[in-house]
Specification:
The chain is α+β, with helices and mostly antiparallel strands and 355 residues long. It has two domains: 88 residues; 232 residues, Bira Bifunctional Protein, Domain 2 (BirA Bifunctional Protein, domain 2, 2-Layer Sandwich). 41% of the residues lie in helices and 21% in strands. It contains twelve helices and ten strands. Strands 1, 4, 5, 6, 7, 8, 9 and 10 form an eight-stranded mixed beta sheet that branches. Strands 2-3 form a two-stranded antiparallel sheet. Strand 6 and strand 7 form a beta hairpin. Bound molecules: 3,4-dihydroxyphenylalanine (DAH). 3,4-dihydroxyphenylalanine (DAH) binds next to strand 9 and strand 10.
């Protein structure tokens, strides 16, 4: 019997045995690997006398094809068996009750930040960010609040080192400085974010949120400031008319400075924004002090503008009827489920940015 026939018969028998995938792969190597039995036969072709060579070659090719087909069929067979066994073992019990579906809620502060960003972006403001850990210069000195200025004490600052060079920012105003140092005027930005002061009661938490606004260009005046804030308050509270008053105030970084109150009344135990004879303070603002502009290398004779700082948590409380600020940061899921916003089922009046 020829070698080829022996190989063929031998391996046909082997492939009939009960084999696993590794064993079949081993057979494949034994036959068709670099030094495999069939490969070796091909290498021997040259030594076969010329008159027999044609027959030898066609016979070898036939055997090669036959064995290859057998191996492929065997592998298919093994894989199908494995899948069937797996399916048999991994039956899904569709009578099991489903797992509870827990869906998160959007925190009212996040929602209000989105709403504010959306309203201001509609009138050309872009959003800037700054770090929570600030240096003393950006937080105070550059904002025209030198050492020993009484405003520094009023901020109840958390200092992070003995030299008082690093601190948790007490307001978002340092983002004004960062923005102006980084770029050239004009500037038209808002900067929402976390702020910190050592203070805690029903209306104060050590961490709270502000949004800073800054608009610097040629010929920007207090009229623009009033128009911008009036537009914002109306859009935010979704009212057509708003009673607003600008009370003279003092901030080191603005001159003149003002605090803004909005009118409200209590109707059926609920607060109604816009009308009424009561006043509620909502923000601080003013025309950016020339010293601040000089500190960031902007020429105050050429450029000027306004800035404002709004307490975000306060606005969220007013708009969504939440009366204790501390609850915002208690991480109580019952509270969040009640006051939070559904990320999928967005209320029809929701105007925040998509997230
Ligand atoms: N940074 C001030 C604060 O936290 C708020 C503020 C007032 C910001 C007036 C301003 C501004 O930009 O012009 O009390």
């Amino acid at each position: 019997m020829s070698d080829i026939k022996k190989i063929k018969d031998n391996f046909i028998l082997k492939l009939k045995e009960n084999l696993d995938l590794n064993q079949v792969n081993q057979i494949k190597t034994d036959l068709f690997g670099k030094t495999g039995l069939i490969s070796s036969q091909f290498k021997m072709m040259g030594k076969v006398p010329e008159e027999e060579r044609k027959k030898f070659a066609s016979n070898l090719n036939l055997v090669k094809d036959e064995l290859q087909n057998l191996i492929t069929a065997k592998i298919d067979d093994i894989e199908t068996k494995e899948i069937n066994q797996k399916l048999e073992k991994e039956k899904i019990d569709i009578t099991l009750p489903e797992r509870p579906f827990v869906q998160g809620k959007i925190h009212p502060v996040s929602q209000v930040i989105d709403e504010i960003s959306s309203i201001f972006s509609e009138i050309g403001f872009s959003v800037e960010e700054g770090p929570d850990v600030e240096n003393e210069y950006n937080n105070f000195t550059a904002l025209n609040t030198p050492d020993n200025h009484p405003a520094r004490d009023m901020h109840d600052t958390f200092y992070l080192d003995d030299k008082k060079e690093l601190l948790l920012r007490t307001h978002t105003s340092p983002v004004q400085i960062r923005t102006m140092l980084n770029d050239k005027p004009p500037f038209k930005i808002i900067a929402p974010g976390r702020t910190y002061r050592s203070d805690s009661d029903q209306t104060h938490t050590p961490m709270f949120h502000q949004v800073e606004g800054l608009h610097i260009d040629k010929d920007i005046n207090m009229g623009h400031l009033k128009g911008c804030l009036n537009y914002f308050i109306k859009e935010f509270f979704e009212v057509n008319k708003i009673k607003m008053r600008f009370r003279p105030s003092h901030f080191p970084f603005t001159e003149p400075s003002a605090e803004v109150d909005i009118g409200y009344e209590i109707k059926d135990g609920k607060i109604v924004i816009g009308e009424g004879d009561k006043w509620l303070e909502v923000l601080g603002c003013g025309m950016v002090h020339p010293n601040v502009l000089k500190n960031v290398k902007v020429n105050p004779d050429e450029f000027q503008g306004y800035a404002f700082g709004i307490g975000i948590d306060r606005l969220a409380m007013l708009k969504y009827g939440i009366n204790d600020l501390r609850a915002f940061f208690d991480c109580d899921y019952r509270w969040l489920n009640h006051f939070g916003f559904d990320p999928v089922d967005v209320p029809s009046n929701y105007r925040g940015l998509s997230r």
